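Recall from the previous chapter that SMILES is a line notation for molecules. Here it describes S-adenosylmethionine.
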Amino acid sequence: MSVVVEESIRDWEKRWEEKRTGWHENNVNQNLIKHIDWLTKSEDGKRKKIFVPLCGQTHDLLYLLQLGHEVFGIEAVHECIPGLEERDGLKFTYDQETSVYQTQDGKLKIFVGDFFECPIENFGPFDAIWDRASFVAVAYSQRKAYIEVMRRSVTSPNGKAQICISVSNINSDFDLCVFVNF
Ligand SMILES: C[S@@+](CC[C@H](N)C(=O)[O-])C[C@H]1O[C@@H](n2cnc3c(N)ncnc32)[C@H](O)[C@@H]1O
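With both inputs in hand, we obtain:
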């Protein structure tokens, strides 16, 4: 792990510990609701496999799950998991070997560890990526590497994917969504 990432994760751990989680929204993100049809559109009508990088404790995980999709999150901080269990009535089992928490039906998996060290090919390929306040939370020097993980996560021989990067904050009027058809 690079020194930049190591220091940054330590900082995120501290923020969670001290409950300095100003980015966290108490509801499903409005842009996700607004663009859910685009994000999960399919010709075959099948439910999707959706990647939620740097997921924290977002309500978006349960929202996507309740729509019937399979969801895969990545989060560095273990302490996020009990909070999700308590709030959303989820029950996870943890596999130390893969660093993955998963619900009993396996429809929600969360890799707990460094995003850049996740063997993403083992969990994809994904049909869509929902990124809210994640790309923008990564240091500038790491953003190229972040995009590379995204690319690896959706690549399949005949695959297509929808990627939505949302930069919105409840505390400001600033609202931006970037849409990528991959
Ligand atoms: C700004 S928050 C966004 C959380 C979520 N997307 C949301 O909408 O609430 C960024 C999250 O990424 C996690 N994180 C930061 N760096 C990480 C890394 N290198 N690997 C995995 N998770 C990381 C932090 O602990 C934090 O929960």
